[in-house]
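hi support,

uploading two proteins for the ticket. first:
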Amino acid sequence: MGAIWGCVDFKSDICSLESMDSEYKRKCKLDSIREKHVANSLFGCGLIYIRNTDKQEAMPYVLDKSDNIMSDADSLTSGSSISAVITADCIIDNRDELKKELSINEDNVTDGQIICYAYRKWHYDLASHLEGIFSIAIYDMIKKEMFLCVDPCACRCLYYYRERKTGKAYFSTLISPLQKVCSYLKRNEDYLTDYLAMPGLLPNASSTETPWRDMYLIEAGDSVIINASGIRHNRYFTPSVIDLPKNIDRLKEIFIDTYRDVVKKMIESDTEIGISLSGGFDSSSVAAMAASLLSEKNKKLHSYTYTPYYKEIAGEYPKNLITDETELVKKIAAMYPNIQCTFDDNEGKDITEYFDIVSDITEIPVKAITNIPVFIEIFKKAEKENVKIILNGQCGNLSVSYGNINDTLNYLFNEHRYITYTRYFSNYFKAIKHSRLRNFIPTLKKIRSLNKPLDLNSSFIQEESNRFVKKSIIDDFDLSKRSEFYDLYEASMTAQNPQTYKMGIYDIPALTYIGEVETKEGLYAGVVMRDPTRSTAIMNYCISIPFEYFCYNGIPRYLIRGFMKDMLPHDILFNYYLKGIQSADWLIRLEHNKENAINMMKEVLLKEEFNKYFDQKKISEYLQLNNSFDNSTRDDYLNLFILVSFASYINL
């Protein structure tokens, strides 16, 4: 597990590129790095040791024409004896099943060798047989083409670039090595415009475009074949409906078994296991599964939780918003004594110290600038404790903890299931201790309003966009022309039903972006993130159960509240209003450094080079009149820091 890179020169018999490893040495914490020249190709691999077998990994591998797997091409008499070169960034979760299917008898076979065996049997169809997280590059020297793929959720990112003039094709886990060796890179202004115009956390409207023209990111569940004449794609994965019973007790058994099996495979490691733990449903449910499994091996689960440095922040928020989740985490740890808690306040540092670091790590402009520095520091601390796998539940809101009561009631009403609707409505308001009579008509009005169609460009983009961006950029932006996933964005703004939910749970742009950032954060710190809530087994389960069961009998988020009620603290499960706030004190941190923060924003945002992107007059006037960081300026300063992130990236 780590990173891969390489080049194939389709118009030559040799690859003249000497190396691509300098950036991996500069900014990644890798346990080993190997590069190999084979005829007209250069392939490389950097590893983070997760399992003991990783220490014997010798990627890149070569296959001879008899399909023998070899770690050293020099032992072959000539390049004509080689059929393929293979490298991979991978953790294979279904090792045991694959060993049987591929007739592998070696106990210490590495994941890279398993991929070689899989390629021998299934050729380019190998990705559909693999479970886990991976990016794979294969140069087929007989067909003279390069095959690239990532796992179904793009948990490991992979970029590629084909130079039309030279006939060279490159791939890399990171962008910066490509910047160093590719001769014709130019900025992709469409990507930059997307970042500035689109509301939300995604940096762009495409799942494959990058900030560089003609450099692409492989999207979730996709593979690419590159040769001298062009590029072709193949989608090898989409979630599939599986046969499940409707009996709620049997569904509970299957859910628990599936969730536990997914977590069990993800914590297979000879290092320590950690988790980014909050008091919310998603990470708590993952922690419960992981802690119980690790206790069977007498191992600890190391939890890492962000806590505010300035405790007085609590009074700034409504009571239902939790700014410090320490006590909830302690209650989870009380149920599972092998959870070893670490609470980190990042010593009160504010985000102004991190813009250049974040830009260097992520290699793209990012909007989640208040959260990423927190995770970076947590990952660095974890690695020092020999924690190499860090679990999270980042996608749980769309899978294990999905369940919105209004969407459910709306669905039942539209399906004319009025008796079930009435029962769910009644049980819900009983549970939250509200009057059913007083809420009957307002609820009907509310759920009917959810079905009103929205014009994203007029009612969404225009209203939610960053007001400090040049108005012409916002006015000219058309999401329907920029994204093949326009219908997905459109569906997300209306009431969910089984069809739109299926679209949302496998949100290819979001999954690809999350994997892009997580891969790079992990490489920087020397760790690997795993998220059981976005596994394909969990996705397939979720799209296969009756839609209303996410709020079974009117209880929202029932897969956790109902199925796991004996596995998590009551205070977490049955307070229907609590919601954790990440990085809650980021404004107060800035308030204690406001003179430097505002001077930094003026210096960065008012540079002449950004006049074509930013409304600098509006920015200047705002900074002159608003020099305090508090709840009244929260949204505006967040938008300004999103622009600082953009500027920091451009100046990188």
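and the second one:
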Amino acid sequence: MLFAVRDFKGAIPRLHPKLLPENFAQIARNTRLEDGALGPVRQTTNVHTFGSNVLSIYLDGSTWRGWATEVDVATAPIADDRIYYTGSGAPKMMVAGVEYALALPAPVSAPTVTNLATPNESLLETVYYAYTWVTGFGEESPPSPLSTALDTSADVTVRVNAFAATPAGRNITAKRIYRSQTTASGVTELFFVAEIPAATASYDHTLATAPLQEVIPSTDYDTPPAGLLGLTAMPNGMMAAFDGKEVYFSEPYQPHAWPIKYTLTVDHAIIGLAAFGSSLAILTSANPYIAQGTHPESMAMEKMDKSLPCLSRRGIVDVGYGALYPSGEGLAMISGQNAEIMSRNLFTREQWRALSPETFIAGHFDGRYAFTFTYSNFDIYDCGDASGFGAFVFDGGAAPASSLLGAAIFDFGSAISAFGDQRLGFIDISGQAPFFIDTDIVVPSAMHVDVSSGEFYMLENGTDVIRWEDPAAAFATQRWRSKTIVFPTPVNFGAFMVQTQGVVQGGNVFSAMVFADGALVETITSTNTPERLPGGFRATQWEVEIVSDTTVTGFALASSVHELLQL
């Protein structure tokens, strides 16, 4: 008679402890479970402290940026190092630590144009002039209003002046002058003439020395709406964001320009966006949408037939091949043209709703969906066991009259519904069977993955940025509780052994507890050697719980020491 575990898995809260698959857990806390062994996570390390509370964080090169609002940050699809963000008032960009409004408006007034000689009547044509602002970052504004019509000829110099005052605070360094010309097909367009310093008050244009060049590119470079949210970088230099029910796209490689002609409209309020491949998931308060295309003018949008409303914008995560987000049914994934619930086999609908998915703050780390959640109005999170056996008990008010066998009791002294207990959890979707892990090390209020290093950072207490799984930090104490193994008739295990990676030293935390029919029958503190268990009783339900800060590679319950030694 033998019960052994050598390939440790996480928890499946949906299932009763007796019905869990082999190697899965009732409780998996502070553990990695990356290679089959039961390895503890490391403690966190503080890497930065803000001077005041923030809600959003971003690592900009080697500098931490923080905002007191819910901000979405995207890097620039250009050669220079810049970041762009929405959610902190009107859309903004930051260059070398200096913040600028993203909007680059057109000049407010038309130029004045004057012939400096009498035009040749036989060569007379009617022309218009306009100009644009140009920033030190290479951005160009939409054109100014057109000048009044001017009858001139090619041999006459035209003076262009009376420009609008240069706006402050946008690093405008130049003006570009454009002149109209009607093509053979009858289309009139503006063509580039010259670029002059922003402070220059007048420009004299002679066609012989400054012939017309390329067509103006910025005619449709509309400024982004002030209410844009959810900024998301996409392939081919595009960026996307939303305002209400409308999705906006930037001109490729021109993050300051958001042509209205590219706008898409959905039929419900947009909660957030996530980009993967050439697709954009548009997550709303009802059905999600998918928009696909390689250029804003070719984006095709399709409404998905499943009503899976997104409950939290901060719970949306781009995992590269799809978008994960909290819906009312569970953790939803949009991938390709499909929408599915990834957590359906992990949580019942009631359990999922008890986690308060509308409060989720999430990130993506090592193939796992990391998220904060709330136990609100949910006193027992019991893995399906109504008795509370093997449960977490979050008790409010007076202490419980009697301790539930095998339960972890957290008595807060006030009703849990008054505040809700915040936790951090991970849903592993990297394998065939998803599982759940939680941790009591940190409860973050923001998360950030640095794409250049792959490091996972969290914000704690509103001011402290901490690094998750710092290789230099000490190991945390993990807790793992096995399924309930049930025998048809009462049995007695006579021996028990836990195998660890190396010898447990005096400074390590280690204990392994054996439960029989809900009662603790033995606790051992040694590893890699058989231990005898008490006799004189039999039980039909057996469990093992391990608390350790060292890696456990397996354990076994056997009828005898001899049977253990045969492993």
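thanks. also noticed: The two ends are 12 Å apart (CA to CA).
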